[in-house]
Amino acid sequence: AKSTGGGVFTVYHPRMRDGLVERLELENDLRGALERGELRLHYQPTIDLATSQVIGFEALVRWPHPVRGMINPLDFIPIAEVTGQIVPLGHWVLHEACRQAVEWSAAAGGRPLKMAVNVSVRQLDRADFAESVAQVLAETGMPADRLCLEMTESVLMTDTEANLEQLVRLKGLGLTLAIDDFGTGYSSLAYLRRFPVDTLKIDRSFVERLGVIADDTALTDTIVRLGKSLGMATVAEGIEEFGQLAALREMGCGFAQGYYFSRPIPAAEAGRLFLEGATV
Ligand code: C2E
Ligand code: CA
Ligand code: CA
Ligand code: CA
């Protein structure tokens, strides 16, 4: 720390510089990664709690960096959102996930496969987003009703008129919309009624403390009931233990994901899992 006079101290740390350089490097590498086709998707199964069957997957992007090793999406998605790279990146994710869904479903004799894809609010901001989704559906032959777009609650809060229009357009294509990490943002019940949302994904932070902290158990139960009373499906994320699964089943939660069933897995493995019609 050095004094700038007047008793004010600013902290200079060499790491701050590294941080910026690293960001710029990542940004640059990411552009290359997209162009060279280096990004990969992993797939985490979604389980129907009534039948214990794998009904589909959530696509989660992975970046195997040639030098740094595997980079976590939480370390590069925010950068891609700032630079706008999220738009081509998200488009690639959507296309690849739909392409795989169609392939796996065909291999399994046409058994329907639900594919969930994460969408950034930055993608939604683009006036041509719904059009680009329609184009992907047409190109890949993905039936619209098997695609679910996941977006966080912030979508419901920001620039609501434009977002509402965009969501209505997407719904018009016949796909389903999910609110991701539900319960962590500030979506009010009024927004839930206003926006054409089909599914609530209960955030892992609630599931984590199920049966441990009474308030979290009560909140989870409330979200499941809320979903039911609004005619929405509920998906619990981050199930790691049998006790959590049992509690969610009892509450009547419809679907689940989590390490208890499976971690996100590479495409080849996911394809096999679906083909076996696995009951996890
Ligand atoms: P998310 O959409 O909430 O995805 C769930 C995250 O929780 C994933 O992390 C998943 O691997 C992890 N997870 C699943 N089950 C469990 C569990 O039982 N225990 C624990 N501890 N973790 C579990 P991941 O793959 O690192 O992704 C992190 C976030 O990055 C995602 O959170 C999503 O917000 C974002 N993301 C990933 N792929 C994409 C993408 O293609 N586009 C966009 N816009 N965001 C993405
Ligand atoms: Ca998600
Ligand atoms: Ca989530
Ligand atoms: Ca989450």
From TrEMBL:
UniProt keywords, alphabetically: Membrane, Transmembrane, Transmembrane helix
Domain EAL: 23-278
Signal sequence, start to end: none
Nucleotide-binding in keyword set: no
Lineage: superkingdom: Bacteria
Protein name as catalogued: Diguanylate cyclase/phosphodiesterase with PAS/PAC sensor(S)
Species this chain originates from: Actinoplanes couchii
